[in-house]
Design brief:
By secondary structure, the chain is mostly helical. The protein has one domain. Helix content is 61%, strand content 5%. The chain has eleven helices and four strands, in the order H-H-H-H-H-H-H-H-H-H-E-E-H-E-E. The strands form two sheets. Strands 1-2 form a two-stranded antiparallel ribbon. A hairpin with a 2-residue loop joins strand 3 and strand 4. The radius of gyration is 22 Å and the shape is globular.
Length: 285
């Protein structure tokens, strides 16, 4: 019971303290796993993926970039205009960030076992999305500034291969495509979280990335490199999560596999798995 003469702390200070406590515990768990777990990563397709992206982008630059500067059929252009906004990172980063803010105010010690695991898994997904989609987007911004490729709108003036490094202007930010990078990251995230729909996600990802060509914002080579960069970095984030035991488990023959307990289905609950959530040992069953 609080003393009548001692006023309680303002709500903002209580929220700030809870946020600091939860954040500190989370980063402590991550740091501890980095220290304690061996630095073993599955052998992935990095070289093949990089070579394939470079080869496709090179072929596109030679044979497609010039041809892509044209007026597309109105139906394709109209559909592309409707679809292309889904390549904006805000659609994916803001919900993930909002959940992390909410989770940072939860009293984890007061949750029951199933509630704790549900909140824990969703927080891991939000953090994974924030890293897998956000970091490739930041890297793309840096590359745009370093490369400074003129957009198709300036084709008549500069051609398809005009580069103006460190020109911080939107008209010189064609390579790589930021929208395509985001779409590549989101496609990888969806495939990793819902592997049964991988072919559908790939087809949708290719379409949304190609809308940047149809609306005249990017060359084909811009979108190929952007999509490949986003997809590859998202997979790399999943590989690191698998090493640390978050969301994924190692898979020696392909992409990291989602842990059976992530979605807390009845089938998943039959498999025992231990987690450390903010220092607590939690058993799923």
């Amino acid at each position: 019971m609080k003393d009548a003469g001692v006023p309680s702390r303002p709500l903002f200070l209580r929220m700030l303290a809870r946020s600091r406590e939860n954040s500190g515990a989370t980063f402590a768990v991550i740091a501890r796993r980095f220290r304690q777990r061996p630095a073993r990563y599955d052998r992935m397709f990095w070289l093949s993926w990089t070579l394939a992206c470079v080869l496709l982008a090179g072929l596109a630059a030679v044979f497609l970039d010039h041809a892509a500067v044209r007026s597309w059929p109105p139906a394709f252009s109209a559909l592309a205009e409707i679809s292309t906004p889904l390549g904006l990172g805000e659609w994916y980063l803001w919900p993930a960030a909002a959940w992390l803010l909410i989770a940072n105010q939860i009293d984890w010690s007061g949750l029951g076992r199933k509630q704790l695991i549900a909140v824990y898994n969703r927080t891991c997904i939000a953090l994974f999305v924030l890293v897998a989609v956000g970091l490739p987007g930041l890297l793309t911004i840096v590359l745009k500034i370093l490369i400074g490729r003129a957009r198709p709108a300036l084709y008549d003036q500069y051609g398809a291969f005009s580069f103006h490094p460190f020109t911080v202007k939107a008209v010189f930010a064609s390579f790589p495509s930021g929208h395509a990078t985001t779409i590549g990251s989101v496609t990888a995230v969806l495939i990793l979280l819902f592997p049964r729909g991988k072919y559908i996600f790939l087809l949708l990802g290719f379409w949304f990335a190609s809308t940047r060509i149809l609306v005249g914002a990017h060359y084909p080579s811009d979108t190929i490199v952007g999509f490949g960069l986003g997809f590859g970095l998202a997979v790399m984030a999943a590989v690191i999560c698998a090493r640390l035991g978050f969301l994924f488990r190692s898979n020696p023959v392909g992409l990291p596999r989602l842990r059976r307990t992530v979605w807390c289905t009845p089938k998943a609950e039959r498999h025992l798995s231990s987690y450390a959530v903010h220092g607590q040992a939690v058993t799923l069953h």
